[in-house]
Amino acid sequence: MKNVTDSFVSLGHWPSAGSFGFNTDILATNPINLSVVLGVLIFFGKGVLNDLLDNRKQRILSTIQNSEELRRGAIEQLERARARLRKVEMEADEYRMNGYSEIEREKVNLINATSDSLKQFEIYKNETLHFEQQRAINQVRQQVFQQALQGALGTLNSCLNSELHFRTISANIGILGSMEEITD
């Protein structure tokens, strides 16, 4: 610090005040040069620096505003997407519940229809069995009747002579005649 003070003191004591020359003492001239350059820079560069800083400030503020607008837009889109998601989830739950109830309803209907079909098949089976039993019984009856008739005819043919045959026919004609009188 003493060097700086010495350099100002030495300015007042120049031996040749009227002459111009170079001071080669770097330590004495640098602070003076720096202060002059800084003074000129501050005086003339203050406006340019203020303009640069103001432009930079405006760009930063506009970037922040754009970011805020984008953020608000993103938040609105997010809320719309969430609302749509809730709506879709509710619809999916509704479809799922309706689907489950429809499946259960169809399952019950299918079980009932199958049960009804099985009952109908059981009825058809029983009717078919009864019909086949009756048919078998009728066939057996016809065979027994034919065998009995053949046996009776064989017995009658062997036992009957023409006189017995004539009396049997007359008796049957008499029975038929009396039946005819009753119906008239």
From TrEMBL:
First-listed, main subcellular location of the protein, grouped into a coarse class: membrane
Pfam families: ATP-synt_B (PF00430)
GO cellular component: proton-transporting ATP synthase complex
Keywords carried by this UniProt record: ATP synthesis, CF(0), Chloroplast, Coiled coil, Hydrogen ion transport, Ion transport, Membrane, Plastid, Thylakoid, Transmembrane, Transmembrane helix, Transport
Segments traversing the membrane: 32-49
The UniProt record lists the keyword NAD: no
HAMAP family the record matches: ATP_synth_b_bprime
Protein known as: ATP synthase CF0 B chain
Gene: atpF
